[in-house]
Amino acid sequence: MSPPGPADDAGLDERTLHVQFDDNALLPLVYGLYDQHLARIEQTLGVTLSSRGNRLAIGGPAGAARQARAALDALYARVKRGHPVDLAEVDAAVRLARQSETGEAGGRDEALVIRTPRRHLTPRSAGQAAYLRALADHALVFALGPAGTGKTYLAVASAVAMMNAGKVDRIVLSRPAVEAGERLGFLPGDMREKVDPYLRPLYDALFDMLPGDQVARKLASGEIEVAPLAFMRGRTLSNAFVILDEAQNATKVQMRMFLTRLGDNACMVVTGDLSQSDLPSPAESGLRDAIETLAGIEGIARVEFTDADVVRHPLVARIVRAYDESDRLRKRGTGERSGS
C-alpha cells in the first residue's frame, strides 16, 4: 500500500482517509475471505472501510482512522513479503497500530523474527518486541505478566531456533510441580507419566515449532529435556537454552538453586505471573524474591507484559483487566480499613 500523499486528504473531512494499494492481486489476501479482515478492523477500531478497485476509504474518528490505515499498511506489507495473514495477524496489526499511536511502540519490527521448522514468528505487541530483543541480547531474562502474552511460547520458539542454528546443543524446559508439592508418588504410572500433566504446555509449544517425529527423536536422545524443577538440583546446564515456566510457583530456595545451574554458553529464561501464585504464601515466591534481589545486575533483563500484550482471544485481555481492577479495589479497601 502506498502512503497517502497530500492529495489524499485534500478537501476531505478529517475523519476520512483515502489510501491506494499498488497491487490489486494481493487485496483478497489482505481483506480476507468475504472481507472478514476488514470487518475485524471495523469492529475493533469503530471505523468504516469501503473498497473500490485498489482504493480504500477509511471513515471514523481521526485517531482510529490513522490506526486502521497503519494496520492495513502492515498487513499489505506482510502479504507482499509472501507471509500469510489470518485474524490473529489482523489483531496483532491493530494492536501494534494502537500502541504506536499512543507512543508505546514504534511499529512492527519485521527484523525481529524467530524462524523454526514449522513457524516464522514476529512480535504481535510492543511487549513481545521488547521480549525478543531481550532474548537476543541477554543470558538471563525474566518475563513477567498475565496469561496469553506469549512469554513461554516465544521462549520455546527462541530455544528451537537457536538449536537449529547450532548455537546451543540442547533445550531444557522445566516447571514447578507445585500442585502435587513435588511429591508425585501418589499419582499412577512411571515418573514420566506422573509429571507430564504439569509440563503439557511446554510440549504443546514444542509441537508447534517442530514436526512431531523430530520432537520425539530429540526427547529420546536428550537434546530436548522436559522435567519438573526438582530434577534440576545438582546439575550444570552448559551449551543449553533453559526455560523455567510458571516460576511464580517456585520457592526462594528452588529459584536460587535453578538460577545457579547456568553453565557456559547457556541462555536462561524465567517466566511467570506474580498474580497467580499457587504457593501457600505469595511472600514465599522465588520469582518475586529473585527480581528484587537481582535488580540492576548486568547481563540480566526483565520484561514486563501488560493486558495490552495479550495475544489470545480479545476477551482474555478484558478478563485480565477486570481481575487487575478487582485486585486494586480489594487492596485499596484493605488499606483503608487498616488505616481507620
The description of the largest β-sheet is: 6 strands, parallel
Number of helices: 12
H/E series: HEHHEEHHEEHEHEHHEEHEHEH
Give the proportion of residues in helices.
40-55%
Radius of gyration: 23 Å
Number of DSSP-assigned strands? 11
As residue ranges, the low-confidence spans are 1-13
User: Which structural class should the secondary elements be placed in?
Assistant: alpha/beta
Distance between termini? 61 Å
The chain-level mean pLDDT equals 84
How would you describe the overall organization of this protein?
Helix 3 packs parallel to helix 5, helix 7 packs across helix 8 and helix 10 crosses helix 11. By secondary structure, the chain is α/β, with parallel strands linked by helices.
Task: Give the key terms.
globular; 11 strands; 12 helices; alpha/beta; three-stranded antiparallel β-sheet; 15% strand
List the helices and strands and how they pair.
Elements: H1 6-9, E1 16-20, H2 27-31, H3 36-45, E2 48-52, E3 55-59, H4 62-80, H5 87-101, E4 114-115, E5 120-121, H6 126-137, E6 140-144, H7 151-164, E7 170-175, H8 191-209, H9 212-221, E8 224-228, E9 240-244, H10 252-259, E10 267-272, H11 286-293, E11 300-304, H12 314-339
Parallel strand pairs: 6-10, 6-11, 7-8, 7-9, 9-10
Antiparallel strand pairs: 1-3, 2-3, 4-5
Short overview:
By secondary structure, this protein is α/β, with parallel strands linked by helices. It is 44% helix and 15% strand.
